[in-house]
Design goal:
The protein is α+β, with helices and mostly antiparallel strands. The chain has six helices and eleven strands. It starts with a helix and ends in a 6-residue tail after the last helix.
Length: about 210
């Protein structure tokens, strides 16, 4: 993961869909999670050195409303979906039904906060399947939850994170013996490459 994206996550400025995927990645990468917590602690200490600013007139009311909501007690959220194999950050969200998207490919919406057209989905791709060669209208952030896939000469295993955008042209292929399950933050739609891709584009939606 890029340093800029990790810093944005630690600072709380990453878009909500991307933050969900990064949280899943960190749940599968304890060392990276420890580093993220260190960045958050450093950011907190830096805030201590910032000159105080006047509070908004409704600040106390908002704080009290938050306190009444959680009563100051840390509770583990109840799982909201039927996939116990998911990392804990993804267990917090309800899931939509599986939808067929081609032979050996299905997707499922994760009902996490959206940011415009950017949303979170699960992709389940069977062994040996090759996705269409494509680029992106925006950001695509993908974390492998089980199995493995490759793009060109790069391999992504469980916990690995791929960062793609409009400058990325790739063709993911599943290389594991088991299905590859991924969570992705997808901004807009994938854009298929070549003349055939342009013909098929209206029929390919994630």
């Amino acid at each position: 993961m890029s340093d800029d994206r990790l810093l944005a996550y630690a600072a709380g400025t990453l878009s909500p869909p991307e933050a969900v995927v990064v949280a899943a990645h960190l749940a599968l990468r304890p060392r990276a999670a420890a580093f993220a917590r260190t960045l958050q602690a450093v950011g907190g200490r830096m805030l201590d050195d910032v000159d105080p600013e006047p509070l908004a007139s409704d600040a106390l009311a908002r704080i009290m409303a938050r306190a009444e909501t959680d009563a100051g007690v840390v509770q583990t959220p109840r799982p909201l979906n039927d996939m116990p194999q998911l990392p804990e950050p993804l267990r917090r969200y309800a899931l939509g039904p599986w939808r067929w998207r081609g032979p050996g490919v299905r997707i499922r919406d994760v009902h996490a906060p959206r940011d415009g057209d950017c949303r979170v989905i699960l992709l389940d791709i069977q062994p040996g399947r090759v996705m269409p060669r494509h680029t992106h209208g925006g950001v695509e952030l993908t974390c492998v939850l089980s199995g493995a896939y490759a793009v060109e000469d790069e391999r992504f295993d469980v916990g690995d994170l791929e960062e793609a955008d409009h400058e990325t042209l790739h063709q993911p292929r599943v290389i594991s013996d088991e299905a590859c399950l991924c969570v992705a933050a997808l901004d807009g739609q994938i854009l298929l490459d070549g003349w055939l891709g342009k013909v098929l584009q209206p029929f390919v939606k994630l």
